[in-house]
């Protein structure tokens, strides 16, 4: 796995590089600004870009804008965004073009090495990894959506874990239920969110995006 890191904090940037190299991953470049990040992605064509939300010069949304631009230039690029805070608008902006190969984690997760590496690998494999705290805040924000109000508490638990990017086996383990029960809940979620079978769209992705984007 070839990785580019975009992080303006030099200590964190080098710490991430050392951590990933210790795990046998190939950090091909690091960058301290959004422009440097885009140049590194263009030059090295990595599998994954780790991107800080807030980067110079204004330290507002340069990282998110760079991530969106990097995906536009290189559609197959996986992006894992790191943020110091839960920033809902940035999470949904990043996911607006689709959730495959995208992740949004709080920086505190980096210290939980196994969780961080699991999220990185999931995103690199084309999956989704959304920080549980982001999902929790989005859950609170979406409680007035009438379609989501149809869901039972357990179905909301399942959808929240789907939004984190977990597969059915992992959801079953987290909730201590059978995979069959998870399948049943997901079928019910699709029905209550008015998502009939459709060969053109992935209902699982559509359900998660509807949940995250509060349509």
UniProtKB/TrEMBL annotation:
One Gene Ontology term from the biological process aspect of the record: phosphorelay signal transduction system
Gene3D superfamilies from the UniProt entry: 3.40.50.2300, Winged helix-like DNA-binding domain superfamily/Winged helix DNA-binding domain (1.10.10.10)
Pfam (any one): Response_reg
Protein name as catalogued: Two component transcriptional regulator, LuxR family
Source species: Cryptosporangium aurantiacum
Gene Ontology MF terms: DNA binding
Response regulatory domain: residues covered: 2-122
Domain HTH luxR-type: 144-215
Superkingdom as given in the UniProt entry: Bacteria
Residues with 4-aspartylphosphate modification: 52
Keywords (A to Z) from UniProt: DNA-binding, Phosphoprotein, Transcription, Transcription regulation
């Amino acid at each position: 796995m070839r990785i580019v890191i975009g992080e303006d904090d030099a200590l964190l940037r080098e710490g991430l590089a050392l951590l990933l190299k210790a795990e046998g991953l190939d950090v091909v470049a690091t960058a301290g600004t959004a422009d440097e990040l885009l140049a590194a992605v263009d030059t090295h064509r990595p599998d994954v870009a780790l991107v800080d939300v807030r980067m110079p010069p204004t330290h507002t949304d340069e990282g998110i804008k760079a991530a969106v631009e990097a995906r536009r230039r290189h559609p197959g690029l996986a992006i894992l965004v790191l943020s110091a805070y839960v920033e809902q608008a940035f999470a949904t902006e990043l996911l607006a073009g689709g959730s495959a190969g995208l992740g949004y984690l709080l920086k505190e997760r980096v210290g939980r090495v196994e969780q961080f590496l699991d999220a990185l690998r999931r995103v690199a494999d084309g999956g989704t990894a959304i920080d549980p705290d982001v999902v929790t805040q989005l859950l609170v924000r979406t409680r007035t959506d009438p379609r989501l109000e149809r869901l039972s508490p357990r179905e909301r638990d399942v959808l929240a874990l789907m939004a984190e990017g977990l597969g059915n086996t992992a959801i079953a383990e987290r909730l201590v239920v059978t995979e069959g029960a998870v399948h049943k809940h997901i079928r019910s979620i699709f029905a209550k969110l008015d998502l009939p079978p459709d060969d053109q769209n992935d209902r699982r992705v559509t359900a998660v995006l509807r949940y995250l984007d509060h349509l």
